[in-house]
Amino acid sequence: MLDIHWMREHQQDVQNAADQKGIEISIQEVLSAYDERKALRQDMDEKRALRNRLSQEIGRLRADSKALSDTAAAHMEQVREVNKKLQEQEEALRMLDAKVNQLLLLVPNVVSRDSPIGKSDQDNVLLKQVGAPPMFSFQARDHVELGALHDMIDIPRGVKIAGTRHYVLKGVGVQLHRAVQQLAIDYLQEQGFTLLDVPLMVRGEAMTNTAFFPLGQNQTYQIGTEDKWLVGTSEVPLVSYYANEIVDVSTPIRLAAASSCFRSEVGSAGRDVYGLYRVHQFAKVEQVVLCEADPELSEAMLQQITRHAEHLLQLLELPYQQMAVCTGDMSQKTYKQYDLETWMPSRACYGETHSSSNLHDFQARRAEIRYRDQAGKLKYCHTLNNTAVATPRILIPLLENHQQEDGSIRIPSALQRYMNGMKELTPAKTEGE
Fold it and tell me: Strand, helix or coil at 230?
């Protein structure tokens, strides 16, 4: 969340961010409810102080006389009235606390000045393109056809097992799936990231602290009636690892995890339903950085983790473009974001495969992650995250861009050591051969 005093001084900026991100909230209502709660608490504190003074006076009067004086009796009646009023106010305070907390959880992060203004991903701004889309001299196959040809992707049986938007990877499909993850893990470890194996089922508190709840709750799978939720990214447990702690970020903390992820995709019916593009279960290698609350430093960290993702795309020999994400395509928590989109021949366009975000201290405030600056003052960290690689989506461009006329698929040299030295995949034999 944002500092309430800063929010008051920048009320219009915060309201603009809410409007641009499509979050229906009145910042004036938030501030009014906060002020109402503050005034009620102050009044209750004054009543408690009065009750304490009266109680002390009653005790003194009782000590001075065996019989209660008229003054003591009046004091006792006044204490009863104060207690009655406090009881009424305590209920009002509980209701106000719930209202204020609910409203504060909806307040968005503000957006960087260099982020484009827009309503959807159609308004994202192209920053650069790297590599050229392949020009095939033959009728290219899409990843579903290639998957069947190589007996590596079985969507019908995935749907039979688990329903729509599920799949099964087989043989070399599993090898590729794991190879791209291991490539990313090895590279990030070389860059100084600490690898963690984290829980995929977390408490609702962890989802709220990382700003995935309440607005993203409908995208998340709940475990029965428990307060346990399947994560859509290991960003949640990676950030929550340091929740409610004071950390040392004299050198930025760099964490990474490879994990399965789950997303309900509510509201995306009919969108990108073909193949492996938008599925309910997938895997990601995630980068998370915690650093000092220095805008220049966290901007440098954003550029760095984005370069890591770009480097991995270059190792995979895939053409891609970098987009500056507009306000309307950002989440509540995001201050600044880049997307990397990779060329997908079957879609005849670039598709989003990576995302990098700088959240400033928005997430750390919710998760209570702080550090001491050089003067010893406690401050909230800046947090950042990036998708180093997400699979099976990355298999779409990997298979389609590297296919050859005979149906074989070239394996980029960086992946070959993770594929038992294979340089290309040849089509599986059909029955009867």
Answer: strand
Q: 91-128 pLDDT, tens per residue?
A: 999 999 999 999 999 999 999 999 999 999 999 999 99
What pLDDT score was predicted for residue 431?
40
Alpha-carbon distance values, 25 to 29, 210, 267, 392 (Å):
8, 20, 21, 37
- CA 238/CA 413 separation, integer angstroms: 31
Q: Give how far the C-alpha of residue 299 lies from the chain's centroid of Cα atoms, to the nearest Å.
A: 18
DSSP string across 249-313: -SS-EEEEEEEEEE---TT-TTSS-STTSS-SEEEEEEEEEEE-S-HHHHHHHHHHHHHHHHHHH
Q: Are 337 and 393 in contact (CB under 8 A)?
A: no
Residue-wise burial string across 400-409, b where 16 or more C-beta atoms lie within 10 A, e elsewhere: bbbbeeebbb
H or E element, residue 388 = strand 382-391
**What's the predicted TM-score (pTM) here?**
0.92
User: Catalytic residues, which ones?
Assistant: 263, 278, 352, 355, 393
- Asked if 246 and 378 count as a contact pair (C-beta separation under 8 A), the reply is yes
